[in-house]
């Protein structure tokens, strides 16, 4: 389709009529025919690769000259820092040969951000790999996962004793903390966003202040409020309450931010259709923010499952398995790591690193489970949910056909293909289901 706003020009030699390109808008036909090769938006050009490789080589050469020949500098960290700074300088110089000042700034900033991401990922990989390597002496033993330390001493080998009591204690404590934190945190975030008011501002201020609360203060609060006044003994329940105090502000803050990102026109559309406030929250707001809420729970769980200071004051240290969270001490994995590594015996230190490796694997497992519960984003249906939506549409079609409510001109025996549901219709149908 062509919309012409320019005059027509007649060629004297051929007698043909053409239209000038000025003011002409051409919309290509959407018949699926490729117009040209697909442009690689994220691809790197040859000169970009040359600039990166050349600047990296020049930076390494400068660092080698400074640390090996010119100056009496030494140290691996200093060498890496000098090489990186020289790399940035040479990269900016090479980019400036073919680009203006603004593009040079953009390229240097992109390199800085990419380097920061690589550095953080490398640090994470180093921590995980170091823990797994140091704990490889204890991890291959089956008794490490099936026995407790009740019959094992500091001088016993790794073929005796284990951390099953710490694993069960961690699972029970974090489960009790999540049972309190998830409904209370998400409900508070919904109150802050959907209700509001002066009290909501006060609650948001308190939750933001609790985010920076030291963990030892939370442990002292629970120790004074629960152990000293009520139970008079350390227990898994008291440790779960201390973990809840640490997790709750994280979940509230993250859920608050996620719920703010839900588009307001979704709420307006639900209200326009006659939906109540709480029906809108349940059927529109929460399904839309579900992946973000799952991420908020992940952040809170990661904060609570690795806490040691509040658990040290509230749960107590024990070498036996205790399945009663309301009576007797119940140790957890972080506290077990602390108890192991403070021993001077090599076998106990190996058990400590093995326990830390199990804790890391447990966090990764909880992360995967939370991602499965969170599911995909709004409008992205899995294969099973798509089949369920199609089946519901077929049932609606049969019901309308039986009542005679079909579109005029289309009967139940009509052999013409019926229009399929669009992705928007599938999403709307899934939400209403």
TrEMBL record:
Source taxon at top rank: Bacteria
Residue spans of biased composition, Low complexity class: 1-29
Region feature Disordered, mapped onto this chain: 1-37, 402-433
Membrane topology listed for this record: Multi-pass membrane protein
GO molecular function, one term: phosphate transmembrane transporter activity
Keyword entries, A-Z: Cell membrane, Membrane, Phosphate transport, Transmembrane, Transmembrane helix, Transport
GO biological process: phosphate ion transmembrane transport
Alphabetical list of PANTHER family matching this protein: PHOSPHATE TRANSPORT SYSTEM PERMEASE PROTEIN PSTA
Name of this chain's protein: Phosphate transport system permease protein PstA
Species assigned in the record: Cryobacterium cheniae
Gene that encodes the chain: pstA
